[in-house]
Amino acid sequence: MEINWLKVLGILITPVIAFIVGVTYGGLTRIITARIQNRFGPPVTQNFWDIVKLYSKKTNIQHGVMQHLAPVFAITASITTLYFVPVIRESTVFTNLSFQGDLIFLLYIMVFGSLGMALGVGQSGNPNGAIGVSRGLSQMVGYEIPFVLAIVAIMIQFKTTNLNDLIAMQNNFNHWIIFQSPFAFLAAILAFLGMMGYAPFDVVVAPAEIASGPPSEFGGKYLGLMMTSRSIFTFAKLTLFTDIFLGGAGDFVTLVIKTFALYMIPVLTGIVNPRFRTEQSIRFFWAWPTVFGILAVLIVVW
Amino acid sequence: MINDKYANKIVDIIQNFARKSSLWVVAYGTGCGAIEIPPTMTSRYDAERFGIRGSATPRQADVLLITGYLSTKTLKRVIRTYEQMQDPKYVIGFGSCTINGGMYWDSYNTIKALDQYLPVDVFINGCMPRPEAVISGFIKLQELIKEGKANGAQKYKENLEWYRENQRKVIKNWKMPDYNW
Amino acid sequence: MFSISGIFITTFVSGLVAFLLHHSVPKIRDWFSIVIMGVIVYAVWELPVKANLLSFKLANYNLVFGNTEYGRLFALIVAVLGFFAILYSKDFMEGKPRLGYFYMAFFFSIGGMFGIVYSQDLISLFFFWEIMTWSSFLLVIYCCKEAQKIGLKYFVFSAIGAYSIMTAMVVLYSSIGSLQFADVFAGFGKMDFWSQLLVVVLLLMGFGVKSATMPLHVWAPGAYRITPSSFTAIFSGALSKMGIFGIGLTLFKIASATGFYPWVQEILAWIGALTALFATFYAVFATDAKTLLAYSSIGQLGYIVTGLAIGTPLSIAAALFLTVMHAIFKGMLFLATGAVYYRTGTTDMTKVSGLIRKMPYTFLTALFGIITVSGVPPLAGFSGKWMLYESLIQSNHYFLVVVIFFSSTAAFLYLYRYIFSLFLGQEEKETENVKEVPWLMRIPMLLLALATLVFGVAPGLLLHPVSAAMKYLGDFGVTYQTSVLFNEWGNKVDMLTVANTIGVVFIIVTIIITIKGYRSTRYVTTKDIHTSGEVPTENENLTYAVDFYKPFERALGSVLKASVDKIYNATGRILEQSFDYLRYVYTGNGQTYAMYVVLFLTILVVFSELIFGIKL
């Protein structure tokens, strides 16, 4: 079998790029939050140093094999998701494995990490962690409906489930799906708010209520790995949304602009909002976002 | 893997820099001093500039901040919290009460000197110390970390017997898991 | 040996022999059953595929048995799962009373299922259907006093199902004049509209009872909970598949010749989806592990019914794929739950917790099971779900796919609850002395877990027999490669790439995180957790197990209060009351009865012209 070295290069450096971008976004988010709160805020490299510090902790504890493996599940899901999303359009290096999978596969592989994390949290035996997982799963059931409605609307409109085909159809500014199917975008972006877990949908971690919930028993290298995974996953999700709705990106500058613009939606919503209770957030997702999703499907059908 | 002396040193410098610039605080709001923490953290004084951030559980934390007097009942919980933290970890004694008992110097149920029971890296003087003082305390701790001198955890490990003896003296119903690292 | 009659005779005779052995030499009873079951698996595998293998005349009716690709798929499910269950039973059932009875009923139900999948005429299908129902009924009431009511419910619903099948047979025979499949399939199109509709509805109702489709599902949770776990694996894994088998036959061999076929498809698909949705909701709030799995089973069968009902090649492939997968994973999960029951004596999820370090193999099985059920790649559940979604989208069932997807997501809730409550969480003092189950119980569980991995990486292995079975159902072709799935738009998922990616990343990161700070990484007990500095005492229960999904319950509000069970109970009460009034007619007084006779004769005389057309 002939090995395409450009592909191999892509496989190797895509996670690194995703990590760097994700970490920088994290730092920028903290600065923007600070500025809105009339503060100065930490340096932009703050998240990076946090992760380095967590990795250089001298001692670590775990409550068993599942907890040991939980961050591994998380980062596996993040990196696999990243590999199956075309990062740069029509590029040999950065499309990675995106021709081998499709949207429904991505929906499921994205859950893989949460499932592993939930298992690890379960083994830690901390009731706060279990409460967090229970809330998180309930909320997931909430935002999954509008999200699936949006995805279904797009899939039946363009008669494909492959991301590369979707990107190819949005070759022009007017053809972006955000303009072609605005209701699908609305439903998906509202679901995205829940997916990112910023306020008002941050019941899962809720540090003041349940002591940061799921990660409450994770420290040191485990928390470091989780933060790494979160950075990569943020980037992967943003790229996925860019690919679906904003026509992907031809180069890195466009990608950064588009993903950052998308990322600001949950961040800026988060800064100015208090926290929903779990049932409130579920009901929120089952109200307007679901209506938008149904509208999106109905518009496509007729 | 890396046996070179200089390489080790570089790794040490990087690690110490990371530790210094990211301090996650579990603020044990034991006494009245806890009221100074919110202004320190929020817009007015903004401790996040220095990478100082609150953390919800001791598992994730680097710094244990004892804000004020400690009654003997709370001491037990504080010790437990300290022992659940991961190495390297630092303790900041906050306010006069942690140094000499402060206004509670003759109280029957508060401890007078915190460093009898836990290895304190930095004391912040005052009753209350203002947020400026708190931040300067943190910066002092950061300097110590950068130089590799903030090794209270090691001191605690080495002198565990002595600390335990002191702790047992004030805590009557001693029923704690072993501290074994 | 490898003839159909051989299989039947071996199964039923060994049932009797096992019963007799129990009363004479109980030592060899278990091993005898295991060996026989192994032989049967081999025989089913080797049985040639031929439509007419055995036929004989019984009172003017031709009874025909044959092996089709479709039947073979189901027969293999039954045989393999039966073998695993009986392997598991040896230790699991040890020391329980009435084991001869257990083994006899076990073998008879297996034999009944073989009869159903091999029969080529409705008479023998019905005959074996009844054998299966009866023997499984015997196992439902095997356990205890509590089982009586549940057994009654199971029996009533089975009877409803059987009578609908029988009525359908009567209608068919009166218009076609033969009950052999060949004649029925050929002659059905010539029947008039109303009898066609009647037959299809009755048959779907009859088979729907066994596959626990929504309005007819109420027997399932209780019956699954009360049977011994080794049989529940069969009950949910194989026996419920007989309903699917029948629905497949009805839809594609009988109903497809009718004009109202698309309507039947649509309605059945929605029934399946709603079954999946509501069963999932009930499963989320179940507190008993077996009840939870029972509702989960109902829900999963809902997907299969939907897949069959849509009737595109991909959806049938998905349905049959899920049929096999459901047999595997529900078998696994019930066996794992049985293992927990075997060691702790309860399946109540609020009582057991933290078994992972004591029963690692059982945990591994349960883990593979829940990953497969939830459909997360790289295990095999994903392939089935993927095909189902794709087929639903491509056959323009947009809202159906959302309902299915939603219930599939909600399934995460109960699956996590299941594994969390039993295996994770706080390790309590009560389960201190629990050990892993014996090897004979571990082997079936681990083999089934391995199967999910193999079929996950190479779904083509399973799609091969599935597509052969689809050829029998009609002219359905589905494209696949050993590890690549295609949808109708030509998009694909390469499971091998997926599995490789996941595997490589997982292993590399695992190695890194294990090596990094290996010496300074400590294991601490689950009592050593962050509890705001408080030291929990030995007996303090910190497990979060009661009202696990309270927020979700609040969000759903009054949706959950609707229960089909209540409707049935109300009907039952009304009937009971009306029969109570009927009792007043029978006073027990001879003179009253004599008066009835006189009254009856008077009516006859007075209205004779009206009734008989003759004047007395």
What does this structure look like?
Chain A is an all-alpha fold and 302 residues long. Chain A has one domain. Helix content of chain A is 71%, strand content 1%. The termini of chain A are far apart. In chain A, 65% of the residues are buried. The model of chain A has no long low-confidence stretch (mean pLDDT 84). Chain B has 181 residues and is of the alpha/beta class. Chain B has one domain (5-170): 3-Layer(aba) Sandwich (Rossmann fold), CATH 3.40.50.12280. Chain B has helices spanning 5-21, 37-41, 72-84, 96-100, 131-146, 152-158, 160-170; strands spanning 23-28, 52-54, 63-67, 90-94, 122-124. The two termini of chain B are 24 Å apart. Chain C is mostly helical. In chain C, the strands form 2 sheets. Chain C has a two-stranded antiparallel sheet with strand order 1-2. In chain C, strands 3-4 form a two-stranded antiparallel sheet. In chain C, helix 14 packs parallel to helix 17 (439-457). The interface between B and C is medium-sized, with 15 and 9 residues.
SSE arrangement of chain B, N to C: HEHEEHEHEHHH
Outline the low-pLDDT stretches of chain B.
none
- The main sheet of chain B orders its strands as 2-1-3-4-5
Mind telling me the C-alpha Rg of chain B? 17 Å
Whole-number average pLDDT of chain B?
83
Instruction: Report helical residue fraction of chain B.
Output: 40-55%
**Estimated structural class of chain A:** mainly alpha
Please identify the structural class of chain B as seen in this structure.
Answer: alpha/beta
Query: What overall geometry of chain A do the principal axes of the alpha carbons give?
Result: globular
Shape of chain B: globular
Helix and strand run of chain A: HHEHHHHHHHHHHH
pLDDT averaged over residues of chain A: 84
Number of domains of chain A: 1
Describe the structure concisely.
Chain B is an alpha/beta fold and about 180 residues long. In chain B, about 40% of the residues lie in helices and about 10% in strands. Chain B has helices at about 5-20, 35-40, 70-85, 95-100, 130-145, 150-160, 160-170, and strands at about 25-30, 50-55, 65, 90-95, 120-125.
SSE topology:
The complex is a heterotrimer of chains A (302), B (181) and C (616).
Chain A: H1 5-36, H2 46-55, E1 60-62, H3 65-83, H4 103-124, H5 127-158, H6 163-169, H7 177-180, H8 182-196, H9 207-210, H10 220-245, H11 252-271, H12 278-286, H13 288-301
Helix pairs in contact in A: 1-10, 1-11, 2-10, 3-4, 3-10, 4-5, 5-8, 5-12, 5-13, 8-13, 10-11
Chain B: H1 5-21, E1 23-28, H2 37-41, E2 52-54, E3 63-67, H3 72-84, E4 90-94, H4 96-100, E5 122-124, H5 131-146, H6 152-158, H7 160-170
Parallel strand pairs in B: 1-2, 1-3, 3-4, 4-5
Chain C: H1 4-24, H2 29-46, E1 50-58, E2 61-67, H3 69-92, H4 99-118, H5 122-140, H6 147-176, H7 181-187, H8 193-210, H9 219-226, H10 229-254, H11 261-284, H12 289-310, H13 313-344, H14 360-374, H15 381-394, H16 398-423, H17 439-457, H18 459-473, E3 484-486, E4 492-494, H19 495-515, E5 521-523, H20 550-556, H21 564-583, H22 590-606, H23 608-611
Antiparallel strand pairs in C: 1-2, 3-4
